Amino acid sequence: MKVAIVVGHCQRSQGAHNPRYDQSEYNFNVALANQIHALLADHPTIRPEIVYRKLNPGIRGLVRKLNYLVRPKLIVSLHLNSFGNPQANGTEVLHWHRSKRSKEFAMIFERHLTGLLRTRDRSGAAHAKGVSEEDRGGYVLRYTKAWCVLCEPFFLSNPVEAKKGMESLDDGTLSQAYTDAIKESVRYLGAKR
Ligand SMILES: [Zn+2]
Predict the structure, then answer these.
(1) What separation in Å is there between the alpha carbon of 193 and the centre of ligand 1?
(2) Single pTM value for the model
(3) 109 Cα–ligand 1 center, Å
(4) What's the CA gap between 121 and 19, in Å, rounded?
(5) What is the pLDDT at residue 45?
(6) Would you say 175 and 32 are in contact if contact means Cβ atoms under 8 Å apart?
(7) How far is the CA of 135 from the centre of ligand 1 (A)?
(8) 184: CA distance to ligand 1 center in Å?
(9) Where are the alpha helices (DSSP H) in the chain?
(10) How far is the CA of 136 from the centre of ligand 1 (A)?
């Protein structure tokens, strides 16, 4: 089963940035994607593929690439959260609000990521937040044919979470949590068939 690991943002537009650590969201996502890919490389049934997007044609080009070229069953989009107030914190996994299956997957990712980082579950009781097209990430979540989750494990703008999050990248525990969530999602899918 093919799983697309989408690197959020691109070289020329790197998303969130933490000046204290000079850490951009894009560079974080690249390193994380490569770790997840390496952990899944030998898996007997999961075929991971890292997908990048370009500034042009942007989000729409990314969706076309996913739908007609990569054609995965599951898409895991890597992002980090960021906000003006440095106190903002927690983990959020977004999914298209009308996709029940994507919601199931979002709950799996939310559980693995909050379990590792001990972060607040921002998605609330449902463990995963549905978004509409206008919301951030909504276009990708809606128009990709595959099930799709957009993960924001922590706030890069929060000094405590940024430190912890970067440590979890360096020691490999974050990529392991993603990998466990991907494996659990695939098992879940197999059980539903
Ligand atoms: Zn982002």
Answers:
(1) 33
(2) 0.94
(3) 17
(4) 26
(5) 94
(6) yes
(7) 13
(8) 24
(9) 25-40, 58-64, 100-117, 138-143, 159-170, 173-192
(10) 9
Centre of ligand 1 to C-alpha 2, Å, is: 23
Q: What is the CATH number of the domain that holds 35?
A: 3.40.630.40
Q: How far is the CA of 80 from the centre of ligand 1 (A)?
A: 5
Ligand 1 centre to CA of 12 (Å) is 13
pLDDT at 56: 86
Domain that holds residue 83: 2-192
Which of 177, 190, 144 lies closest to 4, judged by CA? 144
pLDDT at 131: 79
> 44 CA distance to ligand 1 centroid (A)?
31
Distance, in Å, from the CA atom of 147 to the CA atom of 129, rounded to the nearest integer, reads: 15
Which pLDDT does position 54 carry in this prediction?
Answer: 85
| Closest by CA position to 31, among listed 136, 169, 183 | 169
What is the C-alpha separation between 177 and 179, in angstroms, rounded? 5
- In the predicted model, residues of the chain with pLDDT beneath 50 are 125
